[in-house]
Amino acid sequence: MSVSRIGLISDTHNLVRPEALQWLAGCDAIIHAGDICAPHVLDALAQIAPVTAVRGNNDFGEWAAHLPVSTTLEVQRVKIHVVHDIADLQFDALADGVCVVVTGHSHKPQVEERDGVLFVNPGSAGPRRFKLPISAGMLTIEDDRAEAALHTLVA
């Protein structure tokens, strides 16, 4: 079975950082977990790989109307659920067969396994908020297994 690399990005808030584009280069797909704030962000990401995106609490207007609040996709039989704010998770991920939940909103990068489900927040790749890092993530899927790595884009 092949290896799939899924770039994870969130909370760009209208900013496309060259460091983010460099980190995501070569991935097979990109997930944006919301707070995109402008369509040019998705256009830039789509130059790298196909993009799955959800709407964040700062995504308004006609350009964002087509974005779902949450979505589920499957990569190599690994079910991935994406929602901007984990507080909006409407179901028991494990019971629904979801292996990975990707969120944003808090700007705090985190990878945590709970009850057999991998929860990943890539943090924020947008403007710095407080003293939180500028970051993104990568989900590597191989043989029905998913592993997540976080990467600091700007120290």
UniProtKB/TrEMBL annotation:
Its EC number is 3.1.4.-. It is an enzyme of class 3 (hydrolase). It holds the Pfam family Metallophos_2. Keywords: Metal-binding. It comes from the Bacteria. GO terms for molecular function: hydrolase activity; metal ion binding. Its cofactor is a divalent metal cation. Residues 5-144 form the Calcineurin-like phosphoesterase domain. NCBIfam families: yfcE (TIGR00040). Belongs to the metallophosphoesterase superfamily. YfcE family. This is Phosphoesterase. It comes from Trinickia violacea.
